[in-house]
């Protein structure tokens, strides 16, 4: 498989904080990767490095290009939506389409207009007259009409109501994503993207603490609901996390033997958010 | 090239209010004030039984010799070009604030993240803003001035013709085409002269994390004060005024059309033969003497260096 992004020893230091600390990862083509971490963990810095918006140390290769020096060429193949409020407030729908159509060599105007026809946006409407949800519809219409190989989404649904959020991811999956495209997404609303991700990356204090594909998550991690009498046994197996529900204990295990777990109680696949909470324990302490 | 055209067009979309409507409104206000002045004069004249122009003007023209006719024509030319004065001051203000915001506003409202998501180099982005400041804005201002000037000429001719003066004869005395050519010829010169200011303002706009206006004004002003205080210019055998005139003013005020006239060097060498033809102060023969001035070309060099620095800062500064 061909890698879309490879990072080796990627580091970024701000004045008084380390944002990225010798990070290594590799993202293959045709994946939807969730980059998830607490506030200030380095997610946005990693994305900015990939997009050539910030300087960094180490090696980073995006679609065979160096984002620091070949940004103009890179952006023909890469799109990004950095939360909803970044479209210029003065621009009209018509102007935005005209501009992108004439500046971007891979933009398909008909596709963009078809997508907008399904919304309430009118050509003469200005961004400042739109709600957050409408702005993201416009941005998504522009981005989906671009035949890019990598789409980077940084908190794309922040501040949107649930209807817009569902519609956003649904449009991405149905009308945009295919095996030649790769999507990287960061968000705090993990539950909503859990089912669309193919890969999962946890980042904490500038380090990647988990990098796996979703199938492996189910094989590697398991959650067991254990009654009080077996809790001590479970605790001795070094669980990642323990919490109490209705007088029973729920343990989260990493790589524990499946048969042993099943003998103790009901085993299920943990949700990404439970996994996240367990992994990030003590981050803000 | 196509990308560059659309980048400039984008600047025009964003700043339509400043580039187009500000000069248009200024021009219209200028015309309205003129018309009001004429009406006031007419009313006062009628009330006191004074005839303005009227038979006298008719007789004057009839009896005038070549020299007098030239004076009437010149008067009309000046009336026509005078609209340019007001419009160009407004344009100078527009360009000044446009440059200060050009590379800063989109960082503040974070729309830079959208612009940077498109395959456009930082160099073309910055250059499109330079082109908007030194070409688009003055071209629009000149076109508006010409239209306003023409309307002004027609209004004067009409008023005078109500007093029995032959309007066409009067317009024949003016030199509208020469006035138009004069205004247009000023554009390239303005572009060159304004480069150091545009460069400095864009540099502040690209570099400042907050308050580009304050930096743009405070840095040269404080530098000027220090120079004055310590008499640093004495080291180069130059008066302190030199610094204020050639650094501070060039950095901030060269965006105002005609600001070069103050400098005299080379530009006003021909003052002597201006005589009774004021339009010739603005004529290319006269103004293009500026091209021989080192001040102009050193300014262009400094401006180019500042623009290069702006491009660099445009690349490294993001929305934070």
TrEMBL record, chain A:
- Matching PANTHER family, A to Z? ABC TRANSPORTER ATP-BINDING PROTEIN ALBC-RELATED
**Keywords (A to Z) from UniProt:** ATP-binding, Nucleotide-binding, Transport
* Keyword field contains Transport: yes
Q: So which domain of life are we looking at?
A: Bacteria
Please report the stretch or stretches of sequence annotated as the ABC transporter domain: 5-230
Q: What Gene3D superfamilies does this protein map onto?
A: P-loop containing nucleotide triphosphate hydrolases
Which SMART domains does the annotation name?
A: AAA
Species lineage: Bacteria, Pseudomonadati, Pseudomonadota, Gammaproteobacteria, Lysobacterales
Supply the name of the protein.
ABC transporter ATP-binding protein
List the PROSITE patterns.
Answer: ABC_TRANSPORTER_2
Keyword Glycoprotein present in the record's keywords: the answer is: no
Single GO molecular-function term? ATP binding
From TrEMBL, chain B:
Record's keyword annotation contains Membrane: yes
Give the UniProt keywords, A-Z: Membrane, Transmembrane, Transmembrane helix
Transmembrane residue ranges: 20-41, 84-105, 126-159, 179-201, 213-236, 296-313
Source taxon at top rank = Bacteria
Name of the protein this chain belongs to: Uncharacterized protein
């Amino acid at each position: 498989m061909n890698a879309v992004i490879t990072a080796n020893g990627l580091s970024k230091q701000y004045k008084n904080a380390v944002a990225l600390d010798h990070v290594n990862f590799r993202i293959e083509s045709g994946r939807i990767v969730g980059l998830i971490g607490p506030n200030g963990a380095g997610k946005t810095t990693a994305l900015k490095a990939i997009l050539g918006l910030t300087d960094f140390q180490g090696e980073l290769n995006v679609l065979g290009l160096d984002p620091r020096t070949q940004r103009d060429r890179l952006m023909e193949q890469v799109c990004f939506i950095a939360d909803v409020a970044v479209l210029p407030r003065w621009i009209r729908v018509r102007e935005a389409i005209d501009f992108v159509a004439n500046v971007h060599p891979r933009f398909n105007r008909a596709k963009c207009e078809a997508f907008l026809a399904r919304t309430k946006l009118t050509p003469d409407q200005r961004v400042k007259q739109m709600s957050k949800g409408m702005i993201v519809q416009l941005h998504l219409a522009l981005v989906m009409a671009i035949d890019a190989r990598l789409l980077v989404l940084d908190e794309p649904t922040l501040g949107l109501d649930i209807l817009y959020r569902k519609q956003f991811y649904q449009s991405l999956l149905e009308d945009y994503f295919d095996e030649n495209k790769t999507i990287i997404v960061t968000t705090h609303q993990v539950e909503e993207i859990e089912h669309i991700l193919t890969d999962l990356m946890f980042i904490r204090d500038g380090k990647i603490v988990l990098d796996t594909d979703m199938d492996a998550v189910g094989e590697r991690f398991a959650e067991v609901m254990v009654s009080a009498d077996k809790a001590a046994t479970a605790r001795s197996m070094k669980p990642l996390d323990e919490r109490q529900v209705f007088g029973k204990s729920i343990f989260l295990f990493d790589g524990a033997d499946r048969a042993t777990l099943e003998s103790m109680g009901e085993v299920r696949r943990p949700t990404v958010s439970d996994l996240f909470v367990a992994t990030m324990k003590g981050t803000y302490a | 090239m196509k990308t560059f055209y659309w980048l400039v067009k984008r600047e025009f979309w964003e700043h339509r209010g400043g580039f187009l409507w500000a000069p248009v409104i200024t021009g219209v206000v200028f015309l309205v004030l003129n018309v009001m002045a004429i009406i006031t004069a007419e009313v006062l004249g009628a009330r006191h039984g004074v005839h303005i122009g009227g038979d006298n003007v008719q007789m004057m023209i009839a009896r005038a010799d070549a020299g007098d006719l030239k004076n009437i024509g010149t008067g009309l030319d000046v009336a026509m070009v005078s609209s340019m004065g007001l419009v160009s001051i407004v344009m100078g203000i527009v360009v000044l604030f446009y440059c200060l915001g050009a590379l800063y506003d989109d960082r503040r409202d974070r729309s830079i993240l959208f612009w940077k998501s498109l395959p456009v180099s930082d160099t073309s982005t910055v250059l499109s803003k330079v082109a908007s400041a030194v070409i688009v804005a003055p071209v629009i201002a000149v076109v508006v001035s010409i239209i306003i000037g023409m309307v002004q000429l027609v209004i004067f001719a009409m008023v005078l013709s109500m007093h029995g003066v032959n309007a066409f004869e009067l317009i024949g005395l003016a030199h509208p085409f020469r006035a138009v050519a004069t205004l247009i010829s000023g554009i390239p010169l303005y572009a060159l002269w304004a480069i150091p200011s545009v460069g400095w303002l864009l540099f502040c706009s690209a570099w400042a994390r907050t308050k580009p206006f304050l930096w743009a004004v405070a840095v040269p002003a404080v530098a000027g004060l220090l120079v004055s205080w310590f008499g640093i210019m004495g080291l180069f055998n130059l008066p302190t005024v030199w610094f204020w005139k050639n650094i501070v003013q060039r950095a901030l005020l060269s965006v105002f059309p005609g600001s070069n006239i103050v400098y005299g060097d080379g530009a006003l060498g021909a003052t002597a033969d201006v005589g009774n033809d004021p339009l010739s102060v603005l004529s290319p023969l006269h103004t293009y003497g500026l091209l021989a001035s080192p001040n102009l070309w050193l300014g262009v060099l400094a401006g180019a260096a500042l623009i290069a620095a702006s491009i660099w800062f445009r690349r490294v500064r993001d929305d934070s």
